[in-house]
Fold:
Amino acid sequence: MKYNFDEIVSRWGTESVKWDMCERGVLPMWVADMDFKAAPAIREALQKRLDHGIFGYELVPDDYFTVQDEWFSSRHGWSGLTRETVLPTTGVIAAYSAAIKAMTVPGDKVIVFTPCYNAFFPAIRNNKCVQLDCPLHYENGLWSIDWADFEAKASEARVLLFCNPHNPVGRVWTRSELERVGEICLRNNVFVVSDEIHCELTFPGHDYTPWATLPSEMVEASVTCYSPTKPFNIAGIQIANIYAADAEVFKKMDRAINDNECCDVNVFGVTALKAAYGASGEWLDELRAYLYENARTVYCFLEDELPQVVASPLEGTYLMWLDFSRLFQVKEGLSEALGEFLEHDCGLKLSVGTIYGPVGEGFMRLNIACPRSVLLEGLQRLVAGIRFLLKPHGCCHHGDGEGGHCCHHGEGEEHECCHGHGEGHGEGCCHGEGHGDGEHCCHHGDGEEHECCHHGDGEEHECGHHGSGSREMQAPEN
Ligand SMILES: Cc1ncc(COP(=O)(O)O)c(C=O)c1O
Structure:
């Protein structure tokens, strides 16, 4: 490999949402960005732009469009990305929100396939539309569209807000699935807003099919929102595009991004996009291979250490969707309680399944876009934490005495609340040291579990109780 994805780059103290919203020592495997430096070509181009020293308003140059057209036509068979079909904007959320605005009137229904990316929900609400959930069908770890449900709901809806590849279940929809979705939408006059931000991150056997390569009548009744920010790890730079093949749709979208005041992009966004699509293909291919190995690492690790946790096959994205329902009885609050426990007692922050819709109960989302050693550390914390819960009397607690939810005590019983473990029970504990900085606690790196853990405060505690009251993190929408 030419690029070193094993390199650990500390992000603490860089105002990173993913890292700096967590307590020091907690391993953040939640927000969808990566712990890898961006491709060298991007960093060099940004440095050059920076060195110019003047950052005034900038035109979007022609090669901003040609570089995209070349990339998408050569990699994905999608051509026709020009100034007449592509509208630059500040982000994919801004893009699909403007599309909802353009294509609906207040009160219109917008379909989402749940569980789905959580920032879909406010975009629907903020445009005064009504969210219509079509829960995906789930069987044996596999996710698919419930066609009968979708067909029934399409007749009431105005827009489908679609995600390809799908965050969080990791599906890369096949061409025949997309055509079936498109056919149902056409028949019911449902406009498709396709969020394809994760499109470059697919794994062997699962090719990304751009919505824009479907039959023309389906493409004309759609827009595609896409960006290089996820695959090239430049999300903070905030640049994205809206593709509209139909001239009328293009005009409406142009109006909507002007109304929403998100039609101007920043100079670094333009520079980074050109360097990403223009000169970072090789880096991306190595990244995909690395992420694929990371996914395989998770499967193997879980199979060996925690076979009851089901990881859905990751066809695309770097977000793994983990099912805990074989370990714990699924009832309201389970995912949240697990999230609290893992974060505060095990030093591992995952995304709580229910933020992606009520069907996410019993699931957690794991971001695997980090060096493999960090991934393994996270997995060890997860395993140690779950094993602890499964011990008689092991449970997650909230450390605030209020006895939030649950958890399961490995004896088939459930309790309304949790107790702290700082009562001298010392029932074993979970989790890992903050990968080298030893800030948070207790895994001793030897694969064993110990009776106590250190909480970064210089004291040794009997167990994983932090007793510091409520530490609720407000999860940003990501
Ligand atoms: C499906 C999806 N769409 C959009 C976004 C955010 O896009 P942006 O940062 O360009 O607004 C994310 C981020 O995780 C995402 O997963």
Observations:
- Residues 397-478 have pLDDT under 50 and may be disordered.
